[in-house]
Amino acid sequence: MASDQAAGGQPPDGEAAAATATAAPASCEALLPHQPWGDTSLQQLRSALQQFATERDWGRYHTPRNLVLALVGEAGELAECFQWKGEVPCGLPGFSDAERQHVGEELADVLLYLVRLSDACGIALAAAAESKLRKNAAKYPAEQCRGSSAKYTAYSQQQQQEDGDQTGSAEQQQQQQS
Fold first, then answer.
1. Nearest to 111 by CA among 56, 44, 61, 32
2. Are residues 109 and 171 in the same domain?
3. Is 90 exceeded by the pLDDT of residue 42?
4. What is the mean pLDDT of residues 16-44?
């Protein structure tokens, strides 16, 4: 449900929609209420997928290559849900109930193939995700990148320049003292 619908209003249309589309979007976290996702863990999904594949004798087909190709296909199907719709605001206002259900099903397909792929690769997905979050926090320091969508190399180059400026000023001070 969109934020303006949650407040009792209708989704914007006409000029209001054009103004909304061109305005800088607020974060989804600020627009949408926190909704619980349920208590299912990645481990529970992994176990259910293992059982599902075993019951059907599909394990021999679930090689990393086959699973990643299936994952890409499902990601494409998810992308089709948004194709030709322009920028879609958080909460998917303007999507019908059937379209929202379809998005949910495609998201689930992507997640399930990702979990199965990580299992086939011997990668602990939750641990890998936590590690990647820590690396991204180091690559994108909040104080340097807040409000910017620049690639991390822009921040590392900025830091190198600042470090170089500090090194240069220290060298200049040493030269002045000599």
1. 44
2. no
3. yes
4. 68
